[in-house]
Design goal:
The complex is a heterodimer of chains A (150) and B (430). In chain A, 49% of the residues lie in helices and 18% in strands. Chain A is of the alpha+beta class and 150 residues long. In chain A, helix 4 packs antiparallel against helix 6. In chain B, strand 6 and strand 7 form a beta hairpin. Classes of the chains: A alpha+beta (150), B alpha/beta (430). The structure holds pyridoxal-5'-phosphate.
C-alpha cells in the first residue's frame, strides 16, 4: 500500500503544526472521547453563539491521523452554523466509511480531502473519526442545553 | 554490549540446545509471503503465533478422515474423534508435567480458563477455600493482561471482596517489597502473570509461592506467554492453577487450557452447564461429572485440540530448552540493536535475563500507531497500542507502546529489518 497516500503532506503538516489546539473558555459543552483499541484520547469543547459554533477547542494525545484530523476539523468547522457543520460532518463520515471508493468533494471538505487515503486503512478510520465524533457529541449537548435555558 | 551470542565454532557453542531456524521457517507456509511488496517480517507472535504445516495438516486430516462428535457415540468415527481429543489432552499433560491427565481442562482460550477459576469463588462455595465475601482479598499485579484483571474485578463486585495488587519497579519487575503485607491471612487467591505480554518480564515465583502457602491461599499463574516459550513443570512451580492459550503456541485459535490440581478442580462448582458435564440429570436437579468433563459443557473444540496436540509434538521435537535459548539469544541481540535507535526507550527489563522475547518501546515524539503503520508498509508486523494491559501504560505514563515479539522462527535478520524500519519511521516524521 502507498504510505504517502496515508501520510499526505497536509496531514503531516496539521500534525506538526496543529490549528486551534488547547482548551479554552468559555464553552457550552465539553466531552472526552477515547478510542478503546489504541488509547487515543481527545477532550473537546464547543461554544455556541446562537446558531453558530463560535469556538472549538481541544486537547488530546494520539497518532498523527487523530491529531491532524482534529486540527482540520477546527479549521473547517470553527465559526460555522451548526447545520452547515453537521453537513460537512456527514460528508466526512461518508468519506471515512467509503473504503476509498467515495470521491471527496473539496468544496465541502477542504483539507479533509487529504484523509481520503485513510479510508483504505480500516484500522485507522477510527483515529480519523475520533475528534469528529467528539464534536458531534459536544455540539448536540450544547444545543440541548441552550434549548433548556430558553 | 549485553550480547551473549556464542559464535559457532567456539567450544561452548554446543553446550546449548539449538535448532536450525531456517529449517523451522520452511515449515511455516505463511513466512514465504510478502506484505506490501516486502518479505513478511512477523514480529507479533506474542499476539498470536504462526502455524507450521504439521499443525495445519493435522487439523485438515482430522476433518478429512475422522470427524465426529466426541464422548457420545459408539460408532467408529466417534471413537476415533474421542481418541484424538483425549490424545491431545494427554499430550498437554505431558508437556506441562501434570501429574494426571484429568487435571487438564480444555477451554476456548486463556481468558475462559481465568474466568472459570474466578467463577468458582463466591459467598456460598461449599469448599471454604473458594468461599469469598467482604473482608477477603484477591491479589493480582499491575502487569496483568486485562483477562487476569477484569474477571477478578467482576468477582469482587459480586462478592464484596477486595482486589489488591503488586506494583512494578521502574525496570518493569514485580515489586515484592510489601509481599508479606499484601499476601496475608485474608488472601484467598494470588493470580499473577508468569511472563508479561508487554514488558517481557518473567516473574520469579518462588518467594510468592512460599508466602501463598504460608497463609493458606491459592496460586494461579497466567502462563499464556510462558508455556509457548519456556519449559513448564506445574509440580516444580507448585502452582494450584495455570492458564494458557493454544494460538500463541503454534496451535489454532479456539483452544485453551486450564490446568488445576485435581483435588481442587473436583472441589469447584461447574462453570457452564450443559451436555457432557453431568453425571445425571433429573427435572428436579442434576449432579456433575468429575473434572475435566465437569468444566467442558457442550461440544468442545475438537479439531482445535487435535491441532494443539500437533503443536505440542512440534515443540517437543525441537525441545523447549532449545526454544528458550533461541529466544534468549535473539532477545540479547534485539536489545542491543534497538539501543542504537535514537530516541528509542524500552519498557521492561533491559537485560536478557528474567525476561522473554517480547520488547515494548516508544520512539520519541512519534505515536506507536504511526510507527506500526510505517513498519507495515515495509512488511514488518508489530503490535501497537496498550496491548490489553492498560495499567502498565498508566504505570509508566505512556498512552501506548510499540511491541516486537519473537518466536522460534524469528531471525536476527528480521530484527535488523525492524531496526531499519524504525529509521524509516524517523525519516517520515522528522
Ligand atoms: C499474558 C496474557 N494473558 C492472557 C491472554 C489472553 O489470551 P486469549 O485472548 O487467548 O484468551 C493473553 C493474550 O494476549 C496474554 O498475553
Amino acid at each position: 500500500m502507498q504510505l504517502d497516500q496515508l501520510y499526505q503532506e497536509i496531514i503531516l503538516d496539521h500534525y506538526k503544526r496543529p490549528k486551534g489546539r488547547g482548551l479554552r473558555e468559555p464553552f457550552a459543552a465539553g466531552v472526552h472521547h477515547v478510542n478503546p483499541t489504541c488509547g487515543d484520547e481527545i477532550t473537546l469543547r464547543v461554544a455556541l453563539d446562537g446558531e453558530t459554533i463560535s469556538d472549538i477547542s481541544y486537547d488530546g494525545q494520539g497518532c498523527s491521523i487523530s491529531q491532524a484530523s482534529a486540527s482540520v476539523l477546527y479549521e473547517l468547522l470553527n465559526g460555522r452554523k451548526v447545520d452547515d457543520a453537521f453537513a460537512v460532518h456527514a460528508a466526512f463520515v461518508e468519506l471515512m466509511g467509503g473504503k476509498g471508493q467515495v470521491e471527496p468533494d473539496e468544496e465541502v471538505l477542504g483539507d479533509a480531502v487529504a484523509f481520503a487515503g485513510v479510508a483504505k486503512y480500516p484500522a485507522r478510520v477510527k483515529c480519523a473519526l475520533l475528534s469528529w465524533m467528539a464534536l458531534k457529541d459536544a455540539v448536540a449537548q450544547a444545543v440541548a442545553l441552550e434549548k433548556e435555558e430558553v | 554490549m549485553t550480547a551473549l551470542t556464542i559464535p559457532a565454532g567456539m567450544p561452548q557453542y554446543d553446550d546449548k540446545p539449538r535448532f536450525d531456524v531456517e529449517r523451522v521457517r520452511a515449515d511455516f507456509p505463511i513466512l514465504g509471503r510478502e506484505v506490501n511488496g516486502h518479505p513478511l517480517v512477523y514480529l507479533d507472535s506474542g499476539n498470536t503465533s504462526q502455524k507450521p504445516r504439521q499443525v495445519i495438516d493435522a487439523v485438515a486430516r482430522y476433518y478429512a478422515e475422522h470427524n465426529a462428535n466426541v464422548a457420545r457415540s459408539v460408532h467408529t468415527l466417534g471413537t476415533e474423534s474421542t481418541e484424538a481429543y483425549e490424545g491431545a489432552r494427554a499430550k498437554v499433560a505431558a508437556f506441562i508435567g501434570a501429574p494426571s491427565v484429568d487435571e487438564v481442562v480444555f477451554t476456548k482460550n486463556a481468558t475462559e480458563a481465568l474466568n472459570l477459576v474466578a467463577h468458582a469463588f463466591g459467598p456460598h462455595a461449599q469448599d471454604p477455600r473458594f468461599r469469598l465475601g467482604p473482608g477477603d482479598e484477591i491479589v493480582i499485579s499491575e502487569m496483568e493482561h486485562h483477562s487476569n484483571i477484569v474477571p477478578w474485578q467482576l468477582l469482587c463486585q459480586r462478592t464484596g471482596a477486595t482486589l489488591r495488587w503488586f506494583g512494578l519497579t521502574e525496570t518493569g519487575r514485580l515489586d515484592e517489597s510489601n509481599l508479606d503485607e499484601l499476601v496475608n491471612e485474608r488472601t484467598k487467591i494470588v493470580s499473577i502473570v508468569h511472563m508479561s505480554n508487554v514488558l517481557g518480564t518473567v516473574n520469579a515465583t518462588a518467594r510468592i509461592t512460599a508466602r501463598v502457602r504460608e497463609v493458606g491461599a491459592l496460586l494461579m499463574l497466567d502462563c499464556s506467554q510462558s508455556v509457548p516459550h519456556l519449559p513448564m513443570d506445574v509440580v516444580d512451580y507448585d502452582a494450584d492453577f495455570i492458564a494458557f492459550t493454544g494460538h500463541k503456541m503454534l496451535a489454532p485459535t479456539g483452544i485453551g487450557v486450564l490446568w488445576g490440581r485435581g483435588e481442587l478442580l473436583n472441589a469447584m462448582p461447574p462453570f457452564l452447564g450443559g451436555g457432557s458435564m453431568i453425571e445425571t440429570v433429573k427435572m428436579t436437579g442434576s449432579t456433575f461429572a468429575p473434572a475435566p468433563a465437569r468444566f467442558e459443557a457442550g461440544t468442545p473444540p475438537i479439531a482445535q485440540a487435535v491441532g494443539l496436540g500437533a503443536a505440542i509434538d512440534y515443540l517437543t521435537a525441537i525441545g523447549m530448552d532449545a526454544v528458550a535459548w533461541h529466544d534468549k539469544e535473539l532477545t540479547a541481540y534485539a536489545l542491543d540493536a534497538l539501543d542504537t535507535v535514537p530516541g528509542l526507550r524500552i519498557y521492561g527489563p533491559r537485560v536478557p535475563v528474567g525476561r522473554g522475547a517480547t520488547i515494548s518501546f516508544t520512539l520519541d515524539g512519534i505515536h506507536p500507531h504511526d510507527v506500526g503503520q510505517v513498519l507495515d508498509s515495509l512488511g514488518v508486523q508489530v503490535r501497537v497500542g496498550h496491548h490489553c494491559a492498560k495499567p502498565i501504560c498508566d504505570r509508566f505514563a505512556v498512552p501506548a507502546l510499540t511491541r516486537a515479539s519473537f518466536y522460534l522462527y524469528t531471525t536476527t535478520d528480521e530484527v535488523d529489518a525492524l531496526v531499519r524500519g524504525l529509521d524509516q519511521v524517523r525519516k517520515v516524521f522528522a
